[in-house]
Amino acid sequence: MHVSVTIKDVAKKANVAPSTVSRVISDSPRISEKTKRRVRKVMDELGYHLNYNGRVLVSQSTQTIGIVTKVASVHSFDNPFFSELLRGISDACHEKDYSIYLTTGNTEESIYREVVKMVQGKRVDGVIVLYSREDDNVVPYLRECNFPFVMIGKPVSHTSDTMFVDNDNVQASKEVTDYLIGLGHQKIGFVGGDSHYEVARDRLSGFKLSLREQGLELTEDYLKNIQSGKADAETVVEELLQLTEPPTGLVITDDYNSMKVMRALEDKGIRLPDEMSIVGFNNTMIARLSKPPLTTVDTQSFQLGHESARSLIELLNHPDMVKKSIIIPTIIVERESCIRHKVEKSESEQDYQAPH
Amino acid sequence: MHVSVTIKDVAKKANVAPSTVSRVISDSPRISEKTKRRVRKVMDELGYHLNYNGRVLVSQSTQTIGIVTKVASVHSFDNPFFSELLRGISDACHEKDYSIYLTTGNTEESIYREVVKMVQGKRVDGVIVLYSREDDNVVPYLRECNFPFVMIGKPVSHTSDTMFVDNDNVQASKEVTDYLIGLGHQKIGFVGGDSHYEVARDRLSGFKLSLREQGLELTEDYLKNIQSGKADAETVVEELLQLTEPPTGLVITDDYNSMKVMRALEDKGIRLPDEMSIVGFNNTMIARLSKPPLTTVDTQSFQLGHESARSLIELLNHPDMVKKSIIIPTIIVERESCIRHKVEKSESEQDYQAPH
DNA sequence: TATCGATATGATATCGATTTCATAATTTGA
DNA sequence: TCAAATTATGAAATCGATATCATATCGATA
After folding, report:
1. At what angle do helices A7-14 and A18-25 cross, to 10 degrees?
2. How big is chain B by its Cα radius of gyration, in Å?
3. pLDDT, tens digit, for every residue of B68-121?
4. A343 burial class (0-12, 13-18, 19+ CB within 10 angstroms)?
5. Long-range contacts: A2-11, Cβ < 8 Å, 24+?
6. For residue B132, which of A156, A355, B165, B198 is within the disulfide window of CB 3.0 to 4.6 Å?
């Protein structure tokens, strides 16, 4: 490895003091153009490059932000939603010349330790927490030591004094349920994710809200969760199909899960979308490429990531700014996974609705 | 933000010298147990936590590794292959207590600048380059300044003195082409990615090798590329179908592209797998969830990432170690996107095939 | 010409840790 | 019991940069 040339080496060769070199680096107006030129020339000759660690130590600022996420959750590496978030964050960081530092832990405990290390070890200036979760200890920790952070998702508590970027998930979920109802579906199932996450609850309540407003009854049997370690898509599908009156439409809170459910349904011989309409969430690339292409709620994950990074950086530069929160609008993007429900002739006369 | 407590504060309160505290932190055997206990107690009371930047400055080691990737390539954020790589890297880093630093640039130029910043600015101890590309300037730069790095993919040059982790891509590609031929396909197309990448070339030559060995003729018209900014899946499919004798099987060098092609084919009314057999690469989650589920070459991307990080860390700890390279085996995972090709009666009677 | 005010640069302390060298305290051996 | 060897700790330099304060130089003004 090549030997580093420091500010002192430059200073010596250029016959100036280290402080002068430092000023040249920051292009201070207090140094004459003549000296600047000379010093810069020497820097070139010597191949000088600034060592960040030295600067970090005195400036107490790393110009890097930490990303906290959990493996094995919706917010995790193998979900394209995560990638989009990351891409948005990365993009914003690049704009502002910030760097990204990633947690690598697998368990709650190890993630917590890593966050402490990032924060106390002063490795990052601020943190973006990619989830909002009820029994989480990272956020309370950050709050306690008053460390700058932004979360993606609605905080479980302290909503007014924490910065967050989120969608209006209950509204989004309500709209998409309305959409299914508008298509004539009456028996609609809900397949959520891990209910420890705030986003899961919001989407569930949006779903319920829609049913209520539209005068449909809530069937507990239609409410399912896909949760790693507990219920997978196959189980959920099985349970749903075993019901005497299986749903004809499904609101599934994540594209990835939607895909899994679609495959499980087809394994059971259900034709899509004919026998089951499905809407997903996030509008990831899998929604575009699935078969049938998935109608989904675009949560604009790139924007979510982008805004969170922008806000955090703004907060870092203006520590006293008001802790605003940002709501990114959602859009239903219609593709081919939903069809108008065909009225069945059957027992009672629910059949005799007017055709549309 | 809370005020930091430093080693000096601890020293003062515990009535010892800063050097003693430092020794307690590193659990030096030269400090008596009694003193250690006392100092540790004070550290607890004061809520002391080590500041990494101070340590980094003297130890000249950051315990973090940089990841270099390009947005908008196979190796990019929106491809699940990338996520798997990242997961593998992250996992290995966590094991060894290393941290991850991510590049955020979009253009070749900005990525190059970021790498220089990482390297010269001493922000990372080593880097993993997630691609191997012909006209790349990052790798030559790293080589020139003798900075530790590992690449994923086969180096364009200097193969023997650079560490890399790769699959045997020509072999893998040959095998999977053999597989298609073994299924009775004679007219096989190849859909590659950006041909600037080494991996694309290797897979193409494996493909050609297979044809040659199996005594099939190479049809130039069957060789296509999906390349952002140039040809997309729709174009490729259109071109392929316009041929007087379209292929009956397709080797596509990435699952993601396979999916796109599959959708494009279906848009053209081609039934899958009946009218076109397809194999992909990487065995990402989209292969599992696609319809039909995709037969694909498992490149074991998690392992690829994992091994690259392990190797790099090993290199960092033993700078003089031999620059070994690691080849991760590939496995064809058969799913439902390929079927045995039904032998056609010659042109004239090809309609009179037996129904199946 | 003496003084003041810019302007340009240097000397030095500092950020928070580690490490080398020195020294004090304790134990060992003769 | 005293020198030698060991053990435990402290003082100070250091990593590479920045920032504060001091000083030298120069031109302008009275």
Report:
1. 110
2. 27
3. 987 655 456 668 888 889 889 999 999 998 999 998 788 889 899 999 999 999
4. middle
5. A2/B145, A2/B146, A4/A51, A4/B122, A5/A46, A5/A47, A5/A48, A5/A49, A6/A48, A6/A51, A7/A48, A7/A54, A9/A46, A9/A48, A10/A39, A10/A42, A10/A43, A10/A46, A10/A48
6. B198
Report residue B274 as tokens: 């009946």
Tokens describing residue A290: 């699935």
Answer whether A306 touches B (CB < 8 Å).
no
Residues 246-265 of B with CB under 8 A from A: 256, 259-260, 262-263
Phi, psi torsion values for B30, nearest 5 degrees? -85, 0
* Cβ-based neighbours of B146, under 8 Å, separated by 6 or more: A1, A2
Looking up tokens 């899960």, which residue turns up?
Answer: A257
The 10s digit of each residue's pLDDT in A18-48 is 999 999 999 999 899 999 999 999 999 999 9
Q: Which of A72, A197, A67 is nearest to A129 (CA)?
A: A67
Residues with Cβ within 8 Å of B331's Cβ and at least 6 positions away in sequence, in order, are B297, B298, B300
Dist CA B154 CA B327 (whole Å): 10
Q: Is the peptide bond before A273 cis (omega within 30 degrees of 0)?
A: yes
The domains located in chain B, with CATH, are 64-167+301-329 (3.40.50.2300), 169-298+334-344 (3.40.50.2300)
For residues A248-272, average pLDDT:
94
CA distance B317 to B110: 30
- 3-state DSSP: chain A helix, strand, coil percent, rounded to 5? 45, 15, 40
CA atoms of B289 and B209, how far apart (whole Å):
31
- CB of residue B295 closer than 7 A to nucleic acid strand D? no
* Percent of chain A topping pLDDT 90: 76
Checking each nucleotide's C1' against the CA of A30, the nearest proves to be C8
Strands A99-102 and B99-102 turn out to be antiparallel
d(CA A298, CA A284): 8
Q: Considering Cα of A205, then A206, then A209, then A211, what sign does the dihedral take?
A: negative
**Taking all atoms of strand C, which protein residues have CB closer than 7 Å?**
A 15-20, 23, 29-32, 34-35, 54, 57-58, 60; B 4, 6-8, 18-19, 21-23, 25-26, 49-51, 53-55, 57-59
Q: How far apart are CA A118 and CA A138, in angstroms?
A: 12
Q: Is the pLDDT of residue B277 over 50?
A: yes
Number of H helices, E strands in chain A: 13, 12
How many residues in total does chain A contain?
356
Neighbour-count burial for A301-340, b at 16+ CB within 10 Å, e otherwise: bbbbbbbbbbbbbebbeeeeeeeebbebebebbebebbbe
